[in-house]
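Annual report, structural modelling task.

Input specification for the zinc ion complex:
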Amino acid sequence: MIAKLVDAVFGCWHNRYSFPITIRPNSRNRSRPSTAAALTGMYVVCLDCGKELPYDWREMKVIGSPSQARQYAQELATKQAA
Ligand SMILES: [Zn+2]
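The model returned the following structure:
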C-alpha cells in the first residue's frame, strides 16, 4: 500500500523547487500533510507544476526517485512498528 502511495507522489522531473517546508502536525488550519511530506517531515514544492516532493534535511537533497522514496517509506514503517 505504501509503495502505491509512493508511486503516486512521483512523476515530476522539473528541477526548480521551493525552499524546504517543515510539516507542522499540530496546525489544524492547514490541509493535512501530503504523502511526500510524511516520508521525511519536510518537503519542497515544484515551482513549475506544484508537485510536492519529500526533502531529506540530513542529506540536504530532494528525494527525486521512487526507489529512494521507498527506502524512506520502509524506514518510516520500521519506526512506527518499533
Ligand atoms: Zn514539476
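The helical segments are 2-9, 35-40, 66-81.
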